[in-house]
Amino acid sequence: MASRSLNKALLIGNLTRDPELKYTPKGNAVCTFSIATNSTWKDSDGNVQEIAEFHNIVTWNKLAEICSQILKTGMKVYIEGEIRTRKWEKDGIQRNRTEIRADDMKILSPLPKNVESEMDGGKSDESMNSKEEDDTKAKKTVAEESEIDSIDDLPF
């Protein structure tokens, strides 16, 4: 019997670049962007040190489309997914890239007014009914179960 394992990444960070949306030859949406996370600590001399880590994020299908429409550089987001490493050869050189394949994204920054008005159809918060509020929340937080093509299907 195989032992159980877990591959789960939970990140809170800021987007370092705008998302880039592309489509696979089969027509599935794939969105890539990166976020930065920061850590601080005191060294042995008592000086505060800080380091930034940069994470490559990949989203698929509906979540990919939502990320490309709403997310912008500098926004704070929560990302949940699994760690994946792709390997390929280019010009005779073996390359690899570690990514987080996100299956959940939550926006932690306040949304710009233009994004909020697009999401609620130009209505004020007071005039939105319960169904519209639920639809708006669904656009901000997406966790979907979907068939995901292999990353090898990417045309780039």
Task: Lay out the secondary structure.
Layout (H helix, E strand, L loop, with lengths): L8 E7 L4 E4 L5 E14 L5 E13 H10 L5 E15 L2 E15 L5 H7 L10 H11 E3 L13
Parallel strand pairs: 4-6
Antiparallel strand pairs: 1-3, 1-5, 2-3, 3-4, 5-6, 6-7
In DSSP terms (H or I, runs of 4 or more residues), the helix count works out at 3
* Order of strands in the sheet with most strands: 1-3-4-6-5
Helices and strands, in order, run as: EEEEHEEHHE
Strand count: 7
Which secondary-structure class do the elements indicate? Answer: alpha+beta
Please give the CATH architecture of the largest domain: Beta Barrel
Estimate what percentage of residues fall within beta strands: over 45%
Low-confidence region ranges: 123-149
Task: Describe what this molecule looks like in 3D.
- The structure is a single chain.
- The protein is of the alpha+beta class and 156 residues long.
- The chain folds into two domains: 109 residues, Nucleic acid-binding proteins (OB fold (Dihydrolipoamide Acetyltransferase, E2P)); 34 residues, no CATH class.
- The chain is built from three helices and seven strands.
- A five-stranded mixed beta barrel has the order 1-3-4-6-5.
- A hairpin with a 5-residue loop joins strand 3 and strand 4.
- About 17% of the residues have low confidence.
